[in-house]
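Bug #77: duplicate submission created two jobs. Keeping one. Sequence:
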Amino acid sequence: MEEMNFEEIRNQFAILKDQLNNQEIISDRLIRETMKIKHKDISDSKRTMYLCAVISLSFYPLNAMVHAWSNAFTIVTCLLILMCAVGAYYIHKPVEELNLMRDDFSSVARVMARFKKQYNDSMCYLAPVIIIPYFLWACYEFAWKGSPAGTITWQNVILLLAGAAIGGLIGYYYHSKAVNAAQDIIDEIEAP
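Kept job's structure:
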């Protein structure tokens, strides 16, 4: 009688152990599937930068037709956008090389933390150093240089401010989306 009870207890423990093991596998797979979904948000920011780089290649031929601004300004604009695309490529490269379904969680968390830091640093430190002088040059090109008798055309400055605000909001949206996705992946990995 006691042997039958022990055998039944062993069978119940074996069933419980199998259920716990299956639950871990499902949990691991769910975490990895969630990471893949969040990875898409990171890739969207890179693709948007590449789209901007492709569009910037049309600036020089467009300016050659309308002569709205100087050739130097056009070239610098194209180069800045292309440099941003190259920077995006190098910042995103380690993230793109990850295999989220197979790589261990510590490697994924380390790469995401480095990506998040580099992406934030580029936005907080590098972007203002480049954007502020570039915006002032744009004001000179559009509001002072082309205006009659050296007067300031405030309408052009207001249009530049509106364009800069819209562009800045779009850029900040994609930046936040990528950084938040990286943080969500890190949080998902570190969650108990």
